[in-house]
Amino acid sequence: MTESCPISPDVVDDHATRIGAALTILIVLAILWQGRFWLPLLLALDFGLRSRGWSTFSPIAQVSKVLRQAFRLQPRPTNAGPKRFAAAIGALFSLGIAAALWRHHPRVALVVAAVLILAASLEAFLGYCVGCKVYGVIQTLLPRKEDTHAAH
Length: 152
Known about the structure:
Helix content: over 70%
Oligomer: single chain
Radius of gyration: 16 Å
């Protein structure tokens, strides 16, 4: 498990997040197939729920939990902060896909979707969370609370 973070001291199940990433890939492919701008808005809403820690309201999180149990995978707790940050980034990418489809720019939607699919694939199949790595870089660039108190 990773260290505690400023976003949340909570934990999430790593197996469920990886299953959720696989489901995200399928959903994004369905969005591209359908080409409807409102479908990625639903995905953005789900990402938004998970980014706020409201996984009990997230269909993807709930299906992931059921599938983890069906596959008899034991829970593997990991810090929720980086995963929530990654979900927020997923919401932004989903909104980007929706905007591109709404404005009738399917190629732009395809490029944004490809980046989202790549990130979700790395998480699902390799356990490599791109958003979590970005989160870590941002945390190293921000001053620590101890550093700001010492300066005063």
